[in-house]
Specification:
462 residues, Aspartate Aminotransferase, domain 1, Aspartate Aminotransferase, domain 2, 2 domains, four-stranded mixed β-sheet, 17 strands
Length: 462
């Protein structure tokens, strides 16, 4: 779909200035492209003409190869809700390594038990198994659901990202009309497309229709209580409650993908804030304290399909680095801290989110540009510390589903993604998807710095 605005000349101007200001990153990018596909190993960390190459990160700020100090709102793919490298986590890891421990042993240990106990206590899950990434966690959750129900179909929402695994790679990006219906990767078995159904986020009526048409063939409904890549938008309470009622009625496994939302709004899962207990849930990002940890947690009857009681029907056997001791130490340290300081951390994040969203929107409005943050709360969730900044073509539009937020006919996607990212870097700020996440390491003066940067960027755009 053609964008309503042509930003080609603006991008050319910004890119030329960026290349002059970031010469060391440019040189390293040349080396990277000689050995790495597109110069890196994660698509969201790459950008045109090249990304800044980071040498250190602390709290709200990073420093790049060129010596620039940059205010960061990407924050480790939204994982660092306390900022980069919180001292109590790095100190715990340093002490651990100093004792001659921390690298892989290949044995079970106390840390696995302790972190699993923390997750069970805070989320109400019966059983836990660890892995290394959100992608693997959601894949294993779907495998468990399909094995448990002996059904073929997987239902997900349009715009929902559940990792680069087969049952997540349909309807992620907005494609041709009616949008969100295409497979998002080549190389998948053709049968996968037929096994994946997509429904509209926050549309209870469409969800009812999907279950009426396919309910006896659906193995699971996987959904984020706060959708991430689809727009950083909270689920409506009635939508999640309808999901729980329908999955129970049709014998479908309800999976909450809490890789983004878990431990972001309180020291626990988000589903129970809605009064909804899923059958399975996946966790990652925040729980790892900056280290690679993910988990599947849920009902014993389903989880036991992995082990002896369930005949080892599901090959969730783990990988070499599953439950890595250093990662689990970071997880234990982070979770214990979040639990102990819950009443300080989460109100502060909410307050900072409110200031940030209004500061950014006001800065663009002052220059005559209509911009809207997502992440606004509802009756269940407070205003989110994680949000996107969108540029709807029509004033007054506030996108509340991926069907609007990621639709290039509704929002200026090029402006919010490509133009804004490079323009903000020229002003000493790093954003992704228009904005990103505030952390407890951000201060009110940091938000004022962001607001001033937005003013100058808006003037460039105008």
């Amino acid at each position: 779909m053609v964008n309503r605005r042509d930003h080609a000349q603006l991008f050319t101007t910004l890119a030329a200035e960026y290349e002059r200001r970031f010469p060391a990153s440019a040189r390293l990018n040349t080396r990277a492209n000689a050995v790495l596909v597109d110069g890196g190993s994660h698509a969201l960390r790459l950008m045109r003409p090249f990304p800044p190459r980071v040498v250190r990160a602390d709290g709200a700020w990073i420093e790049d190869e060129d010596g620039h100090r940059i205010l960061d709102f990407w924050q480790g793919h939204h994982a660092n809700i306390l900022g980069h490298n919180p001292g109590f986590v790095t100190a715990a890891l340093s002490r651990y390594f100093a004792t001659g421990q921390g690298l892989l042993t290949g044995f079970t240990d106390r840390l696995q038990v302790e972190v699993a106990e923390l997750l069970r206590r805070t989320t109400g899950a019966d059983r836990v198994r660890f892995t290394t990434s959100g992608t693997l966690a959601t894949m294993y959750a779907v495998l468990l659901a399909r094995a448990y129900t002996v059904r073929p179909l997987v239902l997900k929402v349009r715009g929902g990202w559940h990792g680069a695994q087969p049952w997540g790679l349909k309807g992620v990006t907005f494609g041709t009309e009616p949008g969100f219906q295409e497979m998002d990767s080549a190389g998948l078995p053709t049968a996968i497309a037929d096994q994946l159904l997509v429904t509209r986020y926050n549309d209870s009526d469409m969800l009812v229709d999907q279950f009426r048409a396919h309910g006896d063939q659906i193995a699971c409904f996987i959904v984020e209580p706060f959708i991430g890549a689809g727009g950083m938008i909270p689920a409506d309470p009635e939508f999640l409650r309808a999901a729980r009622a329908l999955t129970a009625r049709y014998g479908v496994v309800l999976i909450f993908d809490e890789i983004v939302s878990g431990f972001r709004y309180r020291a626990s899962d988000t589903g129970r804030m809605y009064g909804v207990q899923p059958d399975l849930a996946t966790f990652g990002k925040v729980i790892g304290g900056g280290m690679p940890v993910a988990a599947v947690a849920g009902r014993a009857k389903i989880m036991n399909l992995i082990g002896k009681k369930g005949g080892k029907r599901v090959a969730f056997s783990g990988g070499t680095y599953s439950a890595h001791p250093a990662s689990l130490l970071a997880a234990k340290t982070m979770l214990a801290y979040l639990i102990a300081h819950e009443n300080e951390i989460y109100p502060r994040l909410t307050a900072l989110a409110q200031i940030t969203h209004r500061t950014v929107e006001t800065a663009f409005a002052a220059e005559g540009i209509y911009a809207r943050c997502t992440g606004y709360g509802n009756d269940v969730l407070p205003e989110s510390p994680s949000a996107m900044l969108l540029f709807p073509y029509d004033d007054g539009v506030t996108p509340r589903t991926p069907d609007a937020a990621r639709n290039p006919a509704v929002c200026d996607i090029t402006l919010g993604e490509e133009i804004l990212r490079i323009a903000m870097l020229l002003e000493g700020v790093h954003v992704t998807h228009g904005l990103g996440s505030v952390t407890t390491a951000h201060t009110e003066s940091d938000i004022a710095y962001l607001g001033a940067a937005c003013h100058r960027v808006a003037q460039r755009i105008k």
